Amino acid sequence: MKQIKDFENKAVLVLGLAKSGMAAARLLKKLGANVTVNDAKDLAGTEEEKALRKEGITLVSGGHPASLLDEADYVVKNPGIPYHNPLVSEAVNRNLPVVTEIELASLVCEGDIVSISGSNGKTTTTTLLYEMLKGNENKKPWIAGNIGTVACEVAQEVKAQDIMVTEVSSFQLKGTKDFHPHVAVLLNIFDAHLDYHGDRLDYEQSKGKMFSNMTSEDVIIYNSDDPVVETLAKHSKAQLVPFSASSKQSEGAYVENGWITFKEESILSLKEASLPGAHNVENMLAAVAAAKILGGSTTQIIDVLKTFNGVKHRLQFVGNLNGRKIYNDSKATNILATQKALSSFTQPVVLLAGGLDRGNSFDDLIPYLAKVKGVVTYGETKGKIAEAAYEADVSNIEKQNTLEEAVKTAYKLTEEGDVLLLSPACASWDQFKTFEERGETFIKAVQHLQ
């Protein structure tokens, strides 16, 4: 770990505890900062408070008093806390630096950072690349970031010759200033998280911050089929390596005659690749390009492409139940993700969808429901998604209050040879804390059908 002096004897306020807040607070303490953690939830008397106190870190919980900013030199905020939060807004008004823990990770990481972002496909691509880089004794890969392992925690272990493969969200990137990946991958951009960002421009600019500090020594791997992604990439000083599922890219990754190809080198026939769906072709191309640039073994790359079974909660194959194939796509928290999931199957599909109502319509889902056998909706958006299914002339439409009830109803609509797919097209927060919790609830409900 780099022993930086940036935070020595500085007063740093960490907003939001959770995993990232705890990790950031502990790292800042190691770096010589005077750390105060603030959380809206009352944590008095909890194990977290006891642990922080023992480590010499102050915890203020149960609210966000503005007085906490009076002595602060820096603010490190949980990525999920929006900028319209009164304490964050006030910090910005006072010109205090407001960053996320990914910024801390980049400052202390000795090895090369690979950052992967996009509206969809981040987790799959990050995991694919991490697996492809394994086996190189001279360059150990580490996996971190929005995928579930806090980056500033992992970064402390990364050696100078190692590679930290990091999934980064727009929430994290918006709070960066000096974040500098050696290789950056941008998969796609479409309307997402606008309730957080306020408008599409802020969302795009947040994604683009991934490239801000890159130089001609660095590499950007970008989706040339997405004009917004291409524009953001070309504003950078870094070397550009495109990937495309629809056209030949001699300087990057593409599909030619049904083969995944990198710079004229045929890697693997798509028929042999394990991941289903057109969207996964893009994810595989991006991962292959990054792995080749980082010195990954072609043998290892091919083996991963043949055997990778997907990421948990992202088109995860749960099993075969009485001739029905069951898939858990709980990570589909927006319409595009569900569109891509539905496009992955040629079999009849019974879809379970629903969740947090962010105020959007589901009209963009209608063309993708045309071949769907049945739709069962639940949660806050059950009425809106059901209306889209009616517009698409889906023959079997049911509404339920909970996911567990929806699973029972959906199974009754299936027959042998069908696919039962959870792909909610919504965030999970109306009934669940996380999409992971929603996915686990789905799996348990399926198990109870047996």
From TrEMBL:
<keyword id="KW-0547">Nucleotide-binding</keyword>
<dbReference type="GO" id="GO:0008764">
    <property type="term" value="F:UDP-N-acetylmuramoylalanine-D-glutamate ligase activity"/>
</dbReference>
<comment type="similarity">
    <text>Belongs to the MurCDEF family.</text>
</comment>
<keyword id="KW-0573">Peptidoglycan synthesis</keyword>
<keyword id="KW-0961">Cell wall biogenesis/degradation</keyword>
<dbReference type="InterPro" id="IPR013221">
    <property type="entry name" value="Mur_ligase_cen"/>
</dbReference>
<dbReference type="InterPro" id="IPR036615">
    <property type="entry name" value="Mur_ligase_C_dom_sf"/>
</dbReference>
<feature type="domain" description="Mur ligase central">
    <location>
        <begin position="116"/>
        <end position="291"/>
    </location>
</feature>
<dbReference type="InterPro" id="IPR005762">
    <property type="entry name" value="MurD"/>
</dbReference>
<dbReference type="Pfam" id="PF21799">
    <property type="entry name" value="MurD-like_N"/>
</dbReference>
<keyword id="KW-0067">ATP-binding</keyword>
<feature type="domain" description="Mur ligase C-terminal">
    <location>
        <begin position="313"/>
        <end position="426"/>
    </location>
</feature>
<dbReference type="Pfam" id="PF08245">
    <property type="entry name" value="Mur_ligase_M"/>
</dbReference>
<keyword id="KW-0132">Cell division</keyword>
<protein>
    <recommendedName>
        <fullName>UDP-N-acetylmuramoylalanine--D-glutamate ligase</fullName>
        <ecNumber>6.3.2.9</ecNumber>
    </recommendedName>
</protein>
<feature type="binding site">
    <location>
        <begin position="118"/>
        <end position="124"/>
    </location>
    <ligand>
        <name>ATP</name>
    </ligand>
</feature>
<keyword id="KW-0131">Cell cycle</keyword>
<keyword id="KW-0133">Cell shape</keyword>
<comment type="function">
    <text>Cell wall formation. Catalyzes the addition of glutamate to the nucleotide precursor UDP-N-acetylmuramoyl-L-alanine (UMA).</text>
</comment>
<comment type="pathway">
    <text>Cell wall biogenesis; peptidoglycan biosynthesis.</text>
</comment>
<keyword id="KW-0436">Ligase</keyword>
<keyword id="KW-0963">Cytoplasm</keyword>
<dbReference type="InterPro" id="IPR036565">
    <property type="entry name" value="Mur-like_cat_sf"/>
</dbReference>
<dbReference type="Pfam" id="PF02875">
    <property type="entry name" value="Mur_ligase_C"/>
</dbReference>
<dbReference type="InterPro" id="IPR004101">
    <property type="entry name" value="Mur_ligase_C"/>
</dbReference>
